[in-house]
Design brief:
The chain is built from three helices and no strands. With 132 residues, the protein is an all-alpha fold.
Length: 132
């Protein structure tokens, strides 16, 4: 544990733990689903990457490094897509974001942009489009 690289990879692991802890605080502090999704998808993805790469390089085995890089690449591919799909499903269900920092919610009967009442979102190919 005397080389510069050992200390560098230990610092990388603590950097990853910091990102994961920041994501946990973001889930606790943010008011609505969309900002919480942002905190978890970004924070945990980068934290996981830093933590796993730091551990893999500390172990030093080429097989461990390859597995870690493969796990990180899958995390970078799947986490943003999963967060996007959760946010999209929430938007289609009518979950609206918080309007201001005080936590004042939007009026559920009004659209964000226009004062007209909201219409239900229609999904192409949904059961509502089919006629019996």
């Amino acid at each position: 544990m005397s080389s510069f690289f050992d200390y560098f990879f230990i610092a990388l692991m603590f950097f990853g733990l910091f990102f994961i802890a920041t994501a946990a605080v973001g889930v606790y502090r943010f008011k609505d689903l969309y900002t919480r999704l942002h905190a978890t998808s970004k924070g945990v993805t980068f934290g996981f990457a830093a933590l796993v790469v730091g551990v893999a390089f500390l172990l030093g085995d080429q097989g461990d490094i390859a597995k870690a890089l493969l796990a990180v690449s899958f995390q970078f591919l799947t986490a943003p897509v999963a967060a996007h799909m959760i946010g999209r499903a929430a938007l289609r269900k009518g979950v609206r974001p918080v309007r201001n920092p005080e936590g004042e919610l939007l009026d559920p009967d009004k659209d964000i942009i226009s004062p007209e009442p909201m219409r239900p979102l229609r999904v192409r190919g949904s059961a509502a489009d089919r006629t019996p």
